[in-house]
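Sample A.
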Amino acid sequence: MGAAVSDWRLARSVSQLGQLGVVSGTAIAVVLARRLQLGDPGAHMRRALAHFPKPDVAERICAEFFIPGGKDSAASFRAIPLPTVTPGRLAIDLMVAGAFVEVYLAKEGHAGEVGINLLEKIQLPTLPTLFGAILAGVDYVLMGAGIPRTIPGALDLLAGGQPASLALNVEGAEPGDLFVQAFDPGPYLPEDPPALRRPKFLAIVASATLAITLAKKCNGRVDGFVVEGETAGGHNAPPRGQPQLSPTGEPIYGERDVPDLDKIRALGLPFWLAGSFGRAGKLAEAQKLGAVGIQVGTAFAFCAESGIRADLKLQALQCSRAHHAGIFTDPLASPTGFPLKIAQLDGTLSDGKFFAERNRTCDLGYLRHLYRKPDGSVGYRCPAEPEADYAGKEGVAEETRGRKCVCNGLLATVGLGQTRSGGEFERPLVTAGNDFENISQFLQPGADSYTAAEVLQVMLAS
């Protein structure tokens, strides 16, 4: 769903209703810092931070970022350190505490289960984010957009309070190169640390081949899979074979891209199906195919409890009700190189006019690529940054064509967008799945919003 769309409020609501509520771990450090700078309405961030195992960390974060009453609407958010291979203490503090806060609030006051979702391609914040979630008692970790072979082993170590490391994908790495990021949880554990529980790990896959690889070659236990079809929201796996585009410029998927459920069932691990399952009767359909359940994203993304701005939800529901809600699977927008499903909404970066008007900048850095510099050190470049900057880092200028700043766009979608000098503000970038056109099905007559409970009522009716 993007950063903070499936936030603690939504995950908590779903979990209280007996299902698995999942928070997004994407850019969680920025989310925490910006919520504090907005004055922390309801004092939820500070309430959760008061339970962080190391009070000095919580106090340091609040001293750095909390603004009583919130920042002036014309003022910019304070920048936080960009993710790097060797992050400083403040950056690590924010990543660990951000995940802790989100999971703590999602689990607060009930016994339901809560998961956290991360993208494998966003490697640099992974270990601190996972540990912060484990500190808060997260029940599941879900990860896709890559091949998360070493995450199960990292979960084992982190749950034991032990240091963990992650091999990094570095473009241009030479034989014998080994680029690793290490994380030591020690500074975030009290003197007499409590026993931590290792969360279950669900890999998000789009093919039986990847599921088989992870089941057999991960460095720890895989507890199941979420099997996504190409109609699922957000990032999609690229089509297999030679890329082809439709007349409208979208990737063309074929039979080779349909996951082989017979092979996945043969692994003997539970799996959930995702991609256009947000309708009545789809749960029963999935269970007949051997799945234990379904993953629903788009339907929840536009419900009352989600983090998406209220004006964007209203526009989306009006489009759906009028039968002209559109999704474009953009093969170029994401710096990851994965196709990205973008909702076509007025005033957002789905409009080429606003994309063309935006001054290219890269000041969040979550989707930067790591590359090997001539001296053997690691450099950082993003296809969505200014073309000259990218080319100056040995990047091919053609790779910047059509790339959007997904980081800034996703944060603007949830009301945490940056204000630039001169009053320019970041435009939202709203992602959703093909079920976007059907979200008005959850509206009661005369209503202009719906709740997570109403979604589940439809999902569980069959």
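Sample B, a different protein:
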Amino acid sequence: MDSQETLAAVQLAAAIMVLAYASVLDLRTRRVPNAFWIVLSAFGVLLLPVRIIMDEAPIEYVLILIPVLAILSDVFWDTDDDSSYRRYSPIAKYAIALIATVALGSAWAAEKHFQPLLAIPVVMMVIVLMYMFDLIRGGADAKALIALSILFPIYPSISGMPFIPGNEAMQIVFPFAISVLTNAAILVAFLPVAFLMRNLVKGDLRFPQVFVGYVLDIDEVAGRHVWLMERIERGKHIFYSRPKSDEDISREIQKLRERDVARVWITPKIPFIVPMLGGVVLTTVLGNVLFLLFGF
């Protein structure tokens, strides 16, 4: 095993250990403390200069840490007060990140060893935007992807893996963290089939709820990590398939009980860190599944 493979093995060991422990917490509580992602991000930051030295690239490439740290300071450093600092500091931090990224790109974007480094702050900002627009629903999920984008500026390569690496251009367009998100989403895409099979066996058939959840006795809902897919609204018993993020389950359950509803449709809160762990393994061994589907 050469030095590059050793570095890749260390990165993978760190990512898998942190994600595995976080997956257990996500399954149990649907909450993962920031400490997991701070540690993983810090480890990635520390390894960036190591990678630059191992690649025998110009040491000036460490300036990529300017936009990386500017974004991390917003993601992980928050205050509880309502001061002007809290209102305007995110704007300043992302302005610094954007200006630094553009400036560094203007200087070295054509350099082969700098291109994956330049992709790091770009991917971080894309993930932040996806979270803001609710394309990534969990804060822990977004922070995990941000940490992975720093830890893996290039795809880890060990013993000929991944088997479907894709060409260099596609690895820049789909960096490792984005491929992990893509593969995790593909794994989650099999859930509708599982829901459908369960509901067919139980004889619970209501479209489209049959593909996104299942039925529970109303007394079993309390304490579960679920959203309702039915409620009493303006005196009417309605069904829906998209969870209500502002839902007060206890109050809605009481309203349903008052209408003598005994069984309710629910959709589970997906612990996305779990498929993300699967996505890391799948991306490492196989590569981005989209590369296989579209022949990149």
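Observation for Sample B: The chain is about 60% helix and 5% strand.
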